């Protein structure tokens, strides 16, 4: 495993960078993952040799760009095991994907409708539903969590009823690392006639996602958390649902025929892809999926899990360290506090040692309010992290503690 890990690390040139006099230890993977050379080279090649718009050119570059773009869509379809490429919509990321669904569902909502989210959600899976509720008169309900950071499935059961139109919930919490029981959530929701949207931003780099087995109605993730570029994301939706929903944004590409009197819309998935898409981003995401397909993910994910357990064990040995959350199933993320210190100060002092973590509320202000915390320090791991990174983190935390 160490040899495999070292081979993986060598694909990520940024990991050789120094911050001051210290070699970088990158533990901010929940915010964004680093990019392998293969993805970087694919972006360079696209802009150097292919750059053109897609779908409407009559020349070779346009044909090549279109082929790369649609090939990337096919790779995503296979990656999450969707039924068809028509179910794969390119967006800018999870935030835009959720906003798209929230806007196109407006006509399906009224003052008797109910939407359910959880206390664990990222702002991107809260605010769009608040706005939808205000537009439509629907009620927004919030499913409780335990003090450990687990979803209260019994509270969800109590809140679900015939008026529930949608349940929108994270696959993995970006603040605590909680792996939510989405299989059970989806079954319970469907039994009550509700659609389900899963925010998979923190899941796809760490878990195998099969939307057929899950049977979710919508699933979304961002490319930049899957070793791909920023500004590209995916919205998966069941074809039979997408076909009857109206478009969101209007303009080029999403149209079939336009007159001043009336417009008809393009077929799936283009009905939801107005304007020139992020072609290079799609190419980069497709390359990232190719990269993952060539390595043994099961061994690397197991090694990543062991690193998280190692870090938890060592942090708990340090007096004055509070681990925030103790979920039954944890994925890649550890949130903690140092007694007597503010998370931002801890993050700054760790950065001075070359250790990159995230400090703050992690776009989960309601969760922080629920836990009565100003924020946390978050260390998040990925497949290229090593035991040496954990050792550096623990050493760094001890040094910070001696300062504060």
Please tell me the CATH architecture of the largest domain by its name. Answer: 3-Layer(aba) Sandwich
> Low-confidence parts lasting 5 or more residues at pLDDT below 50?
none
What is the alpha-carbon Rg in Å? 22 Å
Report the top-level CATH class of the largest domain: Alpha Beta
Q: What do we call the CATH topology of the largest domain?
A: Aspartate Aminotransferase, domain 2
Largest sheet: 7 strands, mixed
Strand order of the largest sheet: 4-10-9-8-7-5-6
Distance between the terminal alpha carbons, to the nearest Å?
37 Å
Strand percentage, roughly?
Answer: 15-25%
**Helix/strand-derived class?**
alpha/beta
The count of domains is 2
How does this structure look, described?
The protein is an alpha/beta fold. Helices cover 39% and strands 17% of the residues. It is built from 14 helices and 17 strands. The strands form five sheets. It has a seven-stranded mixed sheet, sandwiched between helices. Helix 8 links the parallel strand 8 and strand 9. It is globular. The mean pLDDT is 96.
Features:
Aspartate Aminotransferase, domain 1; seven-stranded mixed β-sheet; Aspartate Aminotransferase, domain 2; alpha/beta; about 400 residues; 17 strands
């Amino acid at each position: 495993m160490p040899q495999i890990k070292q081979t993986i690390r060598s694909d990520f040139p940024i990991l050789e960078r120094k911050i001051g006099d210290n070699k970088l230890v990158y533990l901010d993977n929940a915010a964004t993952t680093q990019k392998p050379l293969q993805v970087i080279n694919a972006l360079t090649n696209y802009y150097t040799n292919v750059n053109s718009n897609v779908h409407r050119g009559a020349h070779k570059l346009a044909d090549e760009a279109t082929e790369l773009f649609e090939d990337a869509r096919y790779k995503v379809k296979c990656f999450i095991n969707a039924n068809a490429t028509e179910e794969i919509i390119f967006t800018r990321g999870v935030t835009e994907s959720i906003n798209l669904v929230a806007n196109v569902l407006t006509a399906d909502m009224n003052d008797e409708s109910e939407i359910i989210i959880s206390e664990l959600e990222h702002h991107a899976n809260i605010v769009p539903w608040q706005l939808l509720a205000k537009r439509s008169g629907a009620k927004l309900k919030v499913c409780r969590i335990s003090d450990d950071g687990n979803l209260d499935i019994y509270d969800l059961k109590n809140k679900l009823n015939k008026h529930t139109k949608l349940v929108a919930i994270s696959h993995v919490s970006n603040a605590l690392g909680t792996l939510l029981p989405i299989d059970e959530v989806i079954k319970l929701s469907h039994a009550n006639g509700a659609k389900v949207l899963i925010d998979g931003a923190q899941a796809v780099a760490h878990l195998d996602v099969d939307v057929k087995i899950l049977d979710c109605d919508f699933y979304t993730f961002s490319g930049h958390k899957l070793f791909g570029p920023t500004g590209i994301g995916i919205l998966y939706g069941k074809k039979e649902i997408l076909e009857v929903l109206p478009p969101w944004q209007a303009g080029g590409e999403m149209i079939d025929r336009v007159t001043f009197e009336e417009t008809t819309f393009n077929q799936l998935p283009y009905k939801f892809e107005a304007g020139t898409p992020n072609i290079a981003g799609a190419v980069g995401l497709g390359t990232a999926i190719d990269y993952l397909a060539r390595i043994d993910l099961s061994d690397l994910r197991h090694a990543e899990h062991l690193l998280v357990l190692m870090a938890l064990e060592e942090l708990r040995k340090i007096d004055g360290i509070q681990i925030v959350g103790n979920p039954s199933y944890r994925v890649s993320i550890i949130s903690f506090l140092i007694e007597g210190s503010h998370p931002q100060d801890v993050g700054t002092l760790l950065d001075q040692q070359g250790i990159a973590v995230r400090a703050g509320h992690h776009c989960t202000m309601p969760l922080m309010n629920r836990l009565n915390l100003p924020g946390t320090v978050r260390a998040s791991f990925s497949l290229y992290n090593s035991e040496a990174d954990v050792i550096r983190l623990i050493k760094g935390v001890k040094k910070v503690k001696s300062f504060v």
